[in-house]
Amino acid sequence: MTGYVWKVLIAVSASLGGFYVWGTTLGKEGPHLNATTSPALKWDLRVVAHRGGGLEGPENVIETFQALHQELPSVVLETDVHLSKDGELVAIHDATVDRTTNGSGRVDAMTVTEIQALDAGYHWKDPNGQTPFRGKGLKVPLLKEVLTQVPGANWIIEIKDKRLATPEKFRALIRDLNLQDRVVVASQFGQVIKNLRHYQPQWAYGASHDEVLKTSLLVRLNLWGLDPMRSDFFFVPERTERAEVVNSSFLDVLTRKNKRVVVWTVNSEEDAKRLWAMGAHGVFTDRPRALFQLLAR
């Protein structure tokens, strides 16, 4: 038996054991608002702008988010967050600044002043290979700057930093800005989601990596009735190297459980149309304008 299969069986065993514990301790943790009460369930998720739409402008910068939101205000925006050396929440996908700026180094080893001195439009190229945003003053923003300078937007925010300080600081920011109804929180790290859910059970959450693995396998085994599915949203790839994740059974079960499935990352118009037709509630895309035009056809 492969190591991967052992990991899956262990995860399922732990999850099934955890199901009983969860059911018997719910009252101690406080009520959990299921997807039926989440305002985010009413969002149009068919097109979600992955990092603001990284093929249409520099990713995760305020200018890209603002331009798209002004043009297509119904499109949900997605961004990421890391913690800087001086403890600030920075809106950036990678753990380093190398790919998206003219600098080099880890985000958690740099201060905000050092990070924001970099050119966040330096490497972005248009279809002609030109770099029109280089030297235009684009910077890596703080998460607070993104959220306050793109008012009225709905957000999916992925916490990329698993240090426990991140959820606590993040929780305070969302609460202070009164944006809890405009944010879905995602993280591949189960501990991050657990930490946040303990204090903010009424918020909407995306399933962690382990939650997705557990649910996908239980659907395959037709044992999904044993799965509490505490998260409201499932942000998943269509397939991994080892297995298919999104299929008609997976979508049917999660839809019946009043969950939302959004597939990443889809830049092909044909793939987007196929997934919508299959029943996916939406797709993350680097081409939000291009895919949004499909909805009007």
How are the SSEs ordered, and which strands pair?
Blueprint: H1 3-29, E1 47-49, H2 62-71, E2 76-83, E3 89-90, H3 112-116, H4 143-149, E4 155-159, H5 165-176, E5 183-186, H6 190-199, E6 204-205, H7 209-220, E7 233-237, H8 248-256, E8 260-264, H9 269-278, E9 282-285, H10 288-295
Parallel strand pairs: 1-2, 1-9, 2-4, 4-5, 5-6, 7-8, 8-9
Antiparallel strand pairs: 2-3
Helix pairs in contact: 1-7, 5-6
Overview of this structure, please?
The protein is of the alpha/beta class and 297 residues long. It has a single domain (3-56, 68-79, 153-295), classed as TIM Barrel (Alpha-Beta Barrel), CATH 3.20.20. 37% of the residues lie in helices and 13% in strands. It contains 10 helices and 9 strands. Strands 1, 2, 3, 4, 5, 6, 7, 8 and 9 form a 9-stranded mixed sheet that branches. Helix 9 (269-278) links the parallel strand 8 and strand 9 (282-285). Helix 1 (3-29) packs across helix 7 (209-220). The protein starts with a helix and ends with a helix. The model is unreliable at 1-6 and 12-35 (pLDDT under 50).
